[in-house]
């Protein structure tokens, strides 16, 4: 009996797959869809000698372990989505492509076999069935790279895998991104080729694990990456991974340890004359101060980092944090000036303009400026953004619409925020939005902290008024 898998456009004769030479190829594809369904039942999937096996029930709260040869992150992510959705198709295509990469590890005679033709053709159909866009292009590139390697031609697998991992990170598919970075790490190590890219891959894999809440899984990645950077005498990434360890302690709530680590890096970066490292460590030291509710200290550190960054894109990220701190300190007019400069600035590919727009929309409703709120609400509605940012945009819209007495539209925005947050697994926002649906509260800025703290901020206000650095356009906008 031919069996069709929903959302794939591919039909398989399962009886033929069980005993025919194409068994290995069939296993790759049949197991993928079948195991996704088992994941929905809370069943743990493992591989022994390449064959799927069923284990005991496992909680999703357990930390992911590395390495993850079956790409369990993709099973989890796909298993949480309806089989007919575009995102399910995209995750499934990514999963079977990475399984193809795992399997075809050496070139040889099998490259021209019927097995290879059928297996590569089936994976290409999975990719073809996903929505058009960058993910589809990158998976096509990866399948082509695998085929080229297997055929004994060029080997472009590593850059193709890393490019796909970066896209998953950009789109906030944190567990899948970490899984893919770790796949790249394993591939690089197996090739005994240049290891120069490894520290960056370890850093990004750990970052994605942290964003997914897997702090315990991130730490060994950071320490291993730091060790490799030391062996390679890569000072830049050795410092970057140390900064990441400081942020790991911040996420754990160990503020004292985070402060100690980052202060040490600041001192060492000054002595070594490493301006970007100094700016990054200063910026993240500001995050620790912000977590301590030392908003004036945080604002000062963000401002210093902003002015030190050699990279304008990173300077704008520090300016975003500066605007948040100024708003918390009760200086919304200066926060708005900074946000306007960022909103009107260049598109740096880091979502800075979008985040600035969402924050401006929030400031507009806090200040009671309904005209400006409506303008930004309309602009951002049609702007391309990640699912994570879309959820925050909708929640911000809810607050503003409610503030201005448009209760029906506010309820619609809140419901849509919950739906998008659930779709893109922004779990903390789902909780916040659900709670807000039963309350009348509206976010309000803090009251001004008074003249004493204002005096420490005067250099910042003067810089904003003078249009310094990334704040150019803050006044005239």
- Low-pLDDT ranges: 1-31, 34-68, 438-452
What's the mean pLDDT score? Answer: 81
Overall shape: globular
Q: What structural category arises from helix and sheet content? A: mainly alpha
Q: What gyration radius follows from the Cα positions, in whole Å? A: 25 Å
How many β strands by DSSP? Answer: 4
Brief account:
This protein is mainly alpha-helical and 477 residues long. It has helices at 14-19, 23-40, 72-79, 86-103, 114-128, 134-150, 157-170, 174-191, 198-211, 215-232, 235-252, 255-272, 275-291, 295-308, 312-328, 332-343, 352-366, 370-381, 387-403, 407-423, 427-436, 451-465, and strands at 2-4, 11-13, 43-48, 51-57. It is built from 22 helices and four strands.
3D structure, described in words:
The protein has 477 residues and is mainly alpha-helical. It has a domain at 1-193. It is built from 22 helices and four strands. It has helices at 14-19, 23-40, 72-79, 86-103, 114-128, 134-150, 157-170, 174-191, 198-211, 215-232, 235-252, 255-272, 275-291, 295-308, 312-328, 332-343, 352-366, 370-381, 387-403, 407-423, 427-436, 451-465, and strands at residues 2-4, 11-13, 43-48, 51-57. It has a two-stranded antiparallel sheet. It has a two-stranded antiparallel ribbon with strand order 3-4. The longest helix has 18 residues, at 23-40. It is globular, with a radius of gyration of 25 Å. The chain starts with a strand and ends in a 12-residue tail after the last helix.
